[in-house]
């Protein structure tokens, strides 16, 4: 899909990791920050939010992450 949209990217392949500390040790990126994907759900049925955040982000439950 990225190729079809003419978006430049570099693919990094690595062994499976199960937390951010393992990711930091196994994957050495050139200039990109390590990010994690956070999935939140709302009280409304079928309402979900996916947030990409830098590695050290610690969201507080009940506080807004969107600015």
Q: Which helices and strands, and how do they pair?
A:
Blueprint (H helix, E strand, L loop, with lengths): L19 H7 L8 E7 L6 E7 L13
Antiparallel strand pairs: 1-2
Describe this structure in words.
This protein is an alpha+beta fold. β1 and β2 form a beta hairpin. It starts with 19 loop residues before the first helix and ends in a 13-residue tail after the last strand. The model has no long low-confidence stretch (mean pLDDT 79).
Short recap of the structure:
The chain is α+β, with helices and mostly antiparallel strands.
Look at the structure and give the mean pLDDT: 79
The helix count comes to 1
| Biggest sheet character | 2 strands, antiparallel
Low-confidence stretches: none
Question: Helix coverage percent of residues?
Answer: 10-25%
Identify the overall geometry: extended
Q: Determine Rg (CA atoms, Å).
A: 15 Å
Structural class estimated from helices and strands = alpha+beta
| Physical arrangement of strands within the biggest beta sheet | 1-2
Q: Order of helices and strands, N to C? A: HEE
**Terminal CA distance:** 29 Å
How much of the residues is beta strand, in percent? Answer: 15-25%
Number of strands: 2
């Amino acid at each position: 899909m990225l190729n079809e949209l003419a978006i430049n990217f570099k693919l990094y392949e690595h062994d499976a990791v199960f937390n951010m500390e393992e990711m930091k040790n196994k994957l050495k990126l050139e200039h990109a920050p390590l990010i994690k994907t956070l999935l939140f759900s709302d009280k409304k049925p079928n309402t979900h939010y996916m947030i990409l955040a830098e590695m050290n982000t610690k969201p507080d439950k009940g506080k807004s992450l969107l600015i």
